Amino acid sequence: MIHDARSCTSTTSQPDVDSFDVGRIERAVHEILLAIGEDPTREGLADTPRRVAKSYRELFSGVNQCPSEHLARQFEQAGEDPVMVSDIPFTSMCEHHLLPFTGVAHIAYQPQHDRVVGLSKLARTVEIIARRPQQQERLTQQIREALEEHLDPAAVLVMVEASHSCMQIRGAKVCGAKMRTRSVGGRWERDGATRREIQDLMLND
Ligand SMILES: [Zn+2]
Hints:
Elements: H1 22-35, H2 48-59, H3 68-71, E1 74-76, E2 83-94, E3 99-110, E4 115-117, H4 119-130, E5 133-134, H5 136-151, E6 155-164, H6 165-168, E7 179-186, H7 192-204
Parallel strand pairs: 2-5
Antiparallel strand pairs: 1-4, 2-3, 3-6, 6-7
Bound molecules: zinc ion.
Zinc ion is lined by residues 94, 96-97, 99, 164, 166.
């Protein structure tokens, strides 16, 4: 399987390059304002290109980041009982419309080699992978792949539930619709009974 370099599933760490070009975004937003027939010099819009660039820096901060430094901080814990963290909140940007989608991620894994990671590291992993132009399906898959690569669990299951503003405010305008995606790896791919038990816990707690 070929991975996008930004999926951060390669073992080599990426150079931490800040390729974010504030001036270029400001110019582009200025152009958009002109293109919709607005006056970018009027008081309410004068600072808008700068504000959009600033918020994009935050919303796309995961483009040049990799969760490896967080997932590398593991600690020893004997046993193979499943670990589950549910309702990790995130905000991401749909890559088709550059509009936000928000929701929660649930992560469960079965450790092996007596190694686990802390809750905050899983939350940071979700945040980094979410703060890129994304698709929900790929977000879900990249979280699973990051865990598999760095923690090598016996099994992993990631579920993401999100509302997409591009569905709510334009096109079909389906307000309140929620999209649910799942990615499963390792032992639970074959073990349907355990997988269903974990999924029930994720969605009903
Ligand atoms: Zn969209």
